[in-house]
Amino acid sequence: MIPIRHTAMAVLLAGALAAGLATTSARAAQVETVAKQAYMIDADTGTVLLEKNATEPAPPSSMSKMMTIYVVFSRIKEGRLSLDDEFLVSEKAWRMGGSKMFVEVGKRIPVKDLLRGVIVQSGNDATVVLAEGISGDEAAFAELLNREGKRIGLKDSHFINASGWPADGHVMSARDLATVALRTIREFPELYKIYAETNFTWHGIRQGNRNPLLYMNMGADGLKTGHAEAAGFGLTASAKRGDRRLILVLNGMNSMRERAQESARLTDWGFREFANYALYKKGDTVETATVWLGTDATVPLVLDHDLTITLPRRARRDAKVTVALTQPVPAPIAAGKEIGMLRIAVPDAKTIEIPLKAGKSVEQLGFMGRIKAAIGYLLWGSTK
Predict the structure, then answer these.
(1) Hey, what's the torsion of the CAs at 103, 106, 110, 113, to 10 degrees?
(2) Which of 5-14, 232-241, 274-283, 344-353 has the lowest mean pLDDT?
(3) For residues 382 and 384, what is the distance between their CA atoms, to the nearest angstrom?
(4) Which residues in the chain are classed under CATH 2.60.410.10?
(5) What pLDDT digit, counting tens, does each position of 127-144 carry?
(6) Is 82 a catalytic residue?
(7) What is the mean pLDDT of the chain?
């Protein structure tokens, strides 16, 4: 357990995180990587474990297909699309080069098979079939990707096509790829399982999933590889061990071998060097503050969400948790009002600040009660 120290301060601390630790960073040590862009987060806390050129837009190659799949999964969840719906294969889709599902022009293919053609086989042809089936043509679908990207918070991405086929201006950052991965895992847990499938056969051709981590018995269950001449080799991966899940994005490596070795090494590093520590449950009393002129003498300070933090294992002993607030707190106090701050200080990392809120309402004393309390304070220094 991390030691907790309570302090009182005259002014509340600014810059609190409104919900969770989605922007915190807790690097155990500088770790080198040959990737040109790299980003690793803990999926539960959002804590950044590794960051290298993470907001730099770069060609995502086939990792871009994750955004296409995200849109398809969304349509299925909303009931606007069924896994059994069939889409017609156009000549454009049939002629697509690169990785292929080997669809046949003029045939109709169920969405459930097209999804595996994209996720497992990385088929550019299957991706275009999905795009045309949803939006009519690929250019219109790319605009849909751009709108959906903005909605889910992508900051450094722009889509020209559905597959990640090389095109000027078609870019994504490592951070944005991690965002798509995390939202896919959280929003579509059942459909996400397709990303863990290691092979798929279509038109008599059996192809294996190109994600190297799926074959290493290390907890990996997704997501997508990519390769383009301009960008090199990339991988967006997720692995779960016990209750922890990490998401790793690498891009700009020199070979498939390098991609496999680097992604395995960094995944092991993330699980080995960091751990999650549960501090409080939603509604737990973190501190009790005295109340000035209230019907209750004290008010509990609580969090409005569970609090788990990700820390370097070796830094846990040096972490300090403190509470900052102005006391006594004048009544009336509304339940949920922010009246304090929880601060978590870790060596070599930015201090985490999280609002503490009143766990209940406290009414102000009536006129005579306030007079009595004021006299008591003057005589004995008591706020009761």
Answers:
(1) 0
(2) 5-14
(3) 5
(4) 4-22+278-380
(5) 999 999 999 999 999 999
(6) no
(7) 89
pLDDT tens for residues 85-111?
999 999 999 999 999 999 999 999 999
Could you give the dihedral angle defined by the CA atoms of residues 193, 199, 203 and 205, in that order, rounded to the nearest 10 degrees? 170
**H-helix segments, the chain:** 65-78, 91-95, 111-119, 124-135, 138-151, 174-187, 189-192, 256-273, 367-380
Bridge partners for 291 per DSSP:
329
255 counts as catalytic: no
Task: Record the tokens describing residue 162, joined without a space.
Answer: 């559905």
Range(s) of the chain covered by CATH 3.40.710.10: 53-232
> pTM for the full model?
0.85
Beta carbons within 8 Å of 63's beta carbon, 6+ residues apart: 164, 172, 177, 223, 224, 225, 226, 234, 235, 236, 249, 251
For 276, phi then psi, to 5°, come to: -100, 140
Active site residue 65: yes
Residue type, 195: Y
Task: Please spell the DSSP secondary structure of 142-174, one letter per residue.
Answer: HHHHHHHHHHTT-SS-B-SSSS----TT-BB-H
User: Domain 53-232: which topology?
Assistant: Beta-lactamase (3.40.710)
Separation in Å, CA 324 to CA 9, 10, 99: 6, 8, 57
Catalytic-labelled residue, pool 65, 100, 224, 357: 65
Lookup: tokens for 155:
């900051």
Distance from C-alpha of 277 to C-alpha of 4, rounded to nearest angstrom:
13
Residue 178 confidence (pLDDT) above 80: yes
The pair of three-digit structure tokens given for residue 367, joined into one six-digit string: 């006129």
Q: Which of 64, 122, 157, 238 is catalytic?
A: 122
216-246: b (≥16 Cβ within 10 Å) or e: eebbbbbbbbbbbeebbbbbbbbbbeeebbb
DSSP 312-368: EGGGGGG-EEEEEE-SSEESPB-TT-EEEEEEEE-TTSPPEEEEEEESS-BPBP-HH
Second CATH level (architecture) for the domain 4-22+278-380: Sandwich (2.60)
* Alpha carbons 113 and 207: distance in angstroms, whole number: 13
